[in-house]
Amino acid sequence: MTILVTGAAGFIGFHTARRLCLDGHEVVGIDNLNDYYDVALKQARLKELESLPGFRFRKMDIVDKPALLALFDEHRFTEVVHLAAQAGVRYSLDNPDVYAQSNLVGFLNVLEACRHHRPDHLIYASSSSVYGTNSKMPFSVEDPVDHPISLYAASKRANELLADSYCHLYGLKASGLRFFTVYGPWGRPDMALFKFTDAILNGLPIDLYNQGQMSRDFTYIDDIVESIARLRSRPPVPGDADAGANRLFNIGRGMPVALLDFVECLESALDRQALRNFMPLQAGDVVKTWADVSALAEWVGFRPQVTVETGVTEFVKWYRQFYRI
C-alpha cells in the first residue's frame, strides 16, 4: 500500500508515518514546515523518518490545490491519513486567517483530491475541542457539539461536517478522530508538558490557568498511533444506518487527570519542584475534558492505556536526550 500522511513533520504525523513505515508500508509524507514552532524540531523528525525504508517526503502546503491534486495523480494513494492543520486554541484568537486557510480550505482540498482519486479510507484529525463547554461527562461522540468556543474548535467541527457531506455525495469512507490532549516524545513546544518541562529545568514559573483547577484526558502518543493503525483496516461502510460512511471516534485515555496532579508527575520525573504561577481561565479554554472511548473499543477492540506516570517519564527521557540536558 502507498499511504499519504499529511503533516508528516508534525508531532502526531511523525509518529504515525514512522509506525506505518515500520509496519512495511510505503509512505509519502507532506508538510509545509511552517514556523508556528521551532522548524528545527520538525526537521529533526523528518531526518528520523527519512532513515526508514519506504518513506518519501515532499514539501507541500495542502492549501495549494493544484500541487495536491498532482501528487494524488502521481501516487494513487490507497489510504490518506490527514493530520496537517494549524493547531492551538489560543493562537486562533490572534491569527484566525491561518486557521481558515489550513483547516478549512486545506481540508476541502484534501476532500476534493479524495473525491477524484477514491482512496479506500480517509482518516482525519478532529479534536476534543469540538465539545466546547459541554457539561455532560464523559464526552461521547453521540453528544451535540453545536457551540464551539474557539475558532480552532469551530474549524475542526467544520471538518467533520464537510467529511459528512463528501461521504454522502461521493461515497467516500472516512473516520474522524477527536484527539484528547496528546503528549509524549517529540511533542509540540506549544503544549503544556513541553512548556512546563522547559520552565522547570530553567528555574522559571509555570502558568496554571483557572488557578490550576483544570483537568485533561491526557493521551499518550503511542495510544494515538495504535488507534490509527487499528482503524486503518476498518473503514466505515457506506449506508450504515448508525453512522453513515463518516464515523467519529474519541481517542483519549478515558481517565481525566487534574492539572496539579499532572504537574506533580512531571516534578517527580524531573526531580525538581515547579514554581507555580496561578492565572485566571483564558478565553477559549475549557475546564475539563474526559473521553468516552466506547465507540473506539467496539469498532477495533482497543482502549488507550498508557498512564500519565509512564508517559511523562518517557517524555522527560526524550527531552533530556534530544536537548542534551
What is this structure's SSE topology?
Blueprint: E1 2-6, H1 11-22, E2 26-31, H2 39-50, E3 55-59, H3 65-75, E4 79-82, H4 91-94, H5 96-117, E5 121-127, H6 151-170, E6 174-179, E7 182-183, H7 192-201, E8 205-208, E9 215-216, E10 219-220, H8 221-232, E11 246-251, E12 257-258, H9 259-270, E13 275-278, H10 294-300, H11 308-322
Parallel strand pairs: 1-2, 1-4, 2-3, 4-5, 5-6, 6-11, 7-10, 8-13
Antiparallel strand pairs: 9-12
Kindly list the characteristics that best describe this protein.
325 residues; alpha/beta; 7-stranded parallel sheet; two-stranded parallel sheet; 11 helices; 42% helix
What does this 3D model show about the protein?
With 325 residues, the chain is of the alpha/beta class. The chain is 42% helix and 17% strand. The protein contains 11 helices and 13 strands. The protein has helices at 11-22, 39-50, 65-75, 91-94, 96-117, 151-170, 192-201, 221-232, 259-270, 294-300, 308-322; strands at 2-6, 26-31, 55-59, 79-82, 121-127, 174-179, 182-183, 205-208, 215-216, 219-220, 246-251, 257-258, 275-278. The strands form 4 sheets. Strands 3-2-1-4-5-6-11 form a 7-stranded parallel sheet, sandwiched between helices. The protein has a two-stranded parallel sheet with strand order 7-10. Strands 8-13 form a two-stranded parallel ribbon. Strand 5 (121-127), helix 6 (151-170) and strand 6 (174-179) form a beta-alpha-beta unit. Helix 3 (65-75) packs parallel to helix 5 (96-117). The mean pLDDT is 95.
Spatial ordering of strands, largest sheet: 3-2-1-4-5-6-11
| SSE series | EHEHEHEHHEHEEHEEEHEEHEHH
* Strand count: 13
Structural class: alpha/beta
Strand content: 15-25%
Mean pLDDT: 95
- Radius of gyration (CA) equals 19 Å
Characterize the main sheet: 7 strands, parallel
Q: Span between N and C termini?
A: 40 Å
Helix content: 40-55%
- Tell me the number of helical segments per DSSP (H or I, 4 or more residues long): 11
Q: Low-confidence runs (pLDDT<50, min 5 residues)?
A: none
Question: Could you say which overall geometry the principal axes of the C-alpha atoms support?
Answer: globular
